[in-house]
Design brief:
Layout: E1 5-6, E2 17-19, E3 30-35, E4 40-50, H1 53-65, E5 75-80, E6 82-88, E7 91-97, E8 102-107, E9 110-113, E10 121-126, E11 130-138, E12 144-154, E13 159-168, E14 174-181, E15 198-204, E16 223-225, H2 226-231, H3 241-246, E17 249-256, E18 260-265, E19 284-292, E20 295-303, E21 307-309, E22 314-316, E23 319-325, H4 328-331, H5 355-358, H6 360-377, H7 381-427, H8 432-445, H9 457-475, E24 510-517, E25 520-524, H10 528-543, H11 552-572, H12 578-602, H13 624-652
Antiparallel strand pairs: 1-11, 2-3, 3-4, 4-5, 6-7, 8-9, 8-14, 10-11, 11-12, 12-13, 13-22, 13-23, 14-20, 14-21, 15-16, 15-17, 17-18, 18-23, 19-20, 24-25
Length: 653
């Protein structure tokens, strides 16, 4: 074919092309503005999803009653084209990189760059539904060698179809490799408590392991956090070493942030009977980290395998695109997302390090319960969270009651025998083991043991719920910008207090720009964490018996624990989702009321020593922990007696 180049197109008169519309929310979910730079997407903005709660209220009011039209900037911007700088022999130059834009094409090992708008012409446009761009490869004699066509079509449910082909116009076969930009790193959420942008993959198992493709698409074990992807140098994002060794076949690739995903997948229509992989379109995915005007971002590129295109034939690199929220109401039921198992994009997980601690299965269960309560019982997310508190506290009530009764009795007994313990310390000042042994006998005499003191157990049992709920409220799109208690606080001059259960409570208003303070991204002054600390302080008065420490060290440890509960825990959750602080605050308040009722049953509790019995007839406690304690004490007593006998035998000899 000789030396190849791209034919330059006269760009005069070419206008910006937009698919969809922001003012027709009944018809379009988004607006994708196209650009001739790489024949890709300039920006993606949603028509009925908002950047902030204030923007949501303003647009809702405008659409209902009219008035001054709010700014389009209040509508959520999923992504924009990036301007990158690169070094050339003549100096540093800039180029616009559009979303999913064309990057390069290799024809018979000759590389042609496709990012410049001067090579693309708008060949066809169909209202707000589709647009077609074309570029032409020519030889030195300006004979047409190949036509590159990219047709964008917008669906009405967060999806686009990209039909892209390369047609061979020569009398010989052409060896072609296609490179285009893939999903870029998305915009960081404004009210983030942490940056959880990720790159996700779906893949099909190898033919050897699953020859009939009966298994669903896999998606859980391989992902890159943004920080990990930014550190990659020569290694590709895909395939990983595991994917190569196990012969996984790529099915879809997505860039996600807290709530949204930009994903590419095979252009299929049916549910099960079509190719679910990218084998002929994407052989590898590479990434590059850029920084521009203080903004750091990652651009990805999709590399096809080398393909031989016969004379007069074309090769197809088409794909589908999902640009929308990560919600299972769409990904679970709509095709082709269900067939590709793209519901796995919904991941209630704080990070790869804490994956096990997040209890994904528990977060899924809580999501189902909260959704059921909101849709069918209370019809409000705030009340649904409170009902969830009542369900969890009700299930834990038997354990809570038993533990608090044991705690109260243990505390009273320890106060009563404290003088005797002090006498033991004076009697055996240099024999700590003897003091401990005698103290154990004394506690056994009164029928108490530390195994029965399960005061913190209900809280520990709730910790998995708190962690899973934290992840759920942080990532669950359904609760994003949803107010508590039917938005009653927003009736007062649009007060932002509890206007968004996925963000901080903003009792004293919301800042125009978040403030970074140590590990926190503060978006307003919050009151719920402060109330939570006060509730913890009151809760300790009811649930923790006083003066239980028998040594200064124990007293110091208990004091530190009280300070951590009252100060550190609310401080750690200062910028957490208000739905979580509402849950913990409600749970602690219910716990205090529960403790008050339980204390009435233990006011006259018996703390007298149990009747002495013969060792062989001594009554053992009924509970398992008590029996274990008694057996341990009996074994220890016999061990001490045996040692004493051996010492006496040696002395006699």
């Amino acid at each position: 074919t000789g030396q190849l180049s791209l034919r330059k197109i006269n760009q005069v008169g070419q206008k910006a092309v937009s698919l969809g519309a922001l003012n027709e929310i009944e018809k379009w979910q988004l607006q994708a503005t196209l650009t001739s730079a790489g024949a890709g997407i300039e920006s993606i903005r949603f028509s009925n999803i908002f950047e902030t709660v204030d923007g949501k209220l303003a647009w809702t009011r405008y659409r209902e009653v009219g008035g001054i039209k709010p700014l389009e900037d209040d509508l959520y911007l999923l992504g924009t084209a990036k301007t990158v700088q690169y070094q050339t022999p003549s100096g540093i130059k800039e180029a616009k990189v559009s979303i999913l834009g064309a990057s390069q094409i290799f024809i018979n090992n000759q590389s042609l760059y496709l990012t410049s708008p001067e090579f693309w012409t708008l060949a066809a446009q169909d209202a707000n539904n589709s647009a077609t761009f074309e570029a032409y490869v020519i030889d030195a004699s300006e004979n047409k060698i190949a036509t590159i066509r990219r047709k964008w079509t917008l669906d009405n449910k967060f999806s686009l179809v990209l039909e892209q082909t390369v047609t061979n116009h020569t009398a010989d076969a052409l060896k072609i490799r296609w490179i285009q930009y893939g999903p870029q790193s998305l915009i960081v959420d404004r009210s983030r408590y942490m940056d959880r942008r990720r790159f996700r993959f779906g893949w099909e198992l190898s033919d050897e392991f699953d020859p009939n493709q009966a298994a669903q698409i896999q998606a859980t074990d391989i992902l890159f956090e943004y920080a990990d992807a930014a550190k990659l140098e020569s290694e590709p994002l895909w395939p990983s070493e595991e994917a190569v060794s196990e012969e996984f076949k790529l099915s879809w690739f997505a860039s996600t942030n807290r709530y949204f995903a930009l994903a590419v997948y095979p252009n299929i229509i049916g549910a099960n009977n079509e190719n679910r992989t990218f084998v002929d379109t994407v052989a590898s995915i590479r990434s590059q980290t850029y920084s521009n005007n203080g903004e750091e971002y990652i651009l990805t590129s999709l590399w096809s395998p080398e393909i031989i295109v016969p004379e007069g034939a074309l090769c197809d690199f088409s794909m589908g695109i999902y640009a929308g929220p990560m919600t299972r109401t769409i990904l679970d039921s709509d095709q082709p997302y269900a067939a590709l198992n793209m519901r796995e994009l919904v991941l209630y997980q704080m990070s790869s390090m804490c994956a096990f601690c997040t209890f994904q299965w528990l977060a899924d269960l809580l999501a189902w319960i909260l959704t059921f309560l909101d849709k069918n019982v209370v019809f409000d997310w705030g009340f649904a969270i409170i009902f969830l508190v009542l369900i969890v506290r009700g299930l834990l009530h038997p354990i809570t009651k038993k533990s608090q009764i044991n705690m109260q009795r243990f505390g009273k007994v320890m106060q009563k025998i404290k003088p005797e313990i002090e006498k033991l310390k004076e009697k055996y000042p240099n024999d700590a083991k003897r003091v401990q042994s005698e103290q154990m006998k004394l506690m056994q005499k009164y029928g108490v043991n530390p195994f029965q003191m399960l005061g913190c157990l209900p809280m520990f049992l709730q910790m998995p719920v708190w962690v899973a709920l934290y992840a759920l409220l942080y990532f669950m799109f359904d609760i994003r910008q949803e107010p508590a208690f039917f938005g009653v606080f927003q009736l007062f001059w649009e007060w932002p207090f509890l206007a968004d259960l996925s963000a901080s409570d903003h009792f004293f208003g919301e800042f125009d720009q978040p403030i970074n303070f140590f590990f926190w991204n503060i978006t307003g002054i919050n009151v719920l964490p402060i109330l939570m600390g006060a509730i913890f302080f009151v809760q300790q008065k009811y649930m923790s018996p006083q003066n239980m420490a028998t040594t200064p060290e124990q007293e110091s440890q208990q004091k530190i624990m009280r300070i951590m509960m009252v100060v550190m825990f609310p401080l750690m959750l200062y910028s957490a989702p208000s739905g979580l602080t509402l849950y913990i605050l409600t749970s602690s308040t219910v716990g205090i009321l529960e403790s008050q009722r339980i204390r009435k049953h233990v006011e006259n509790i018996d703390v007298n020593p149990r009747p002495e019995q013969q060792d062989s007839q001594r009554r053992k406690p009924k509970d398992k922990q008590g029996r274990a304690w008694a057996d341990a004490m009996e074994a220890r007593r016999k061990k001490v007696q045996n040692k004493a006998k051996k010492r006496n035998f040696k002395k006699r000899n």
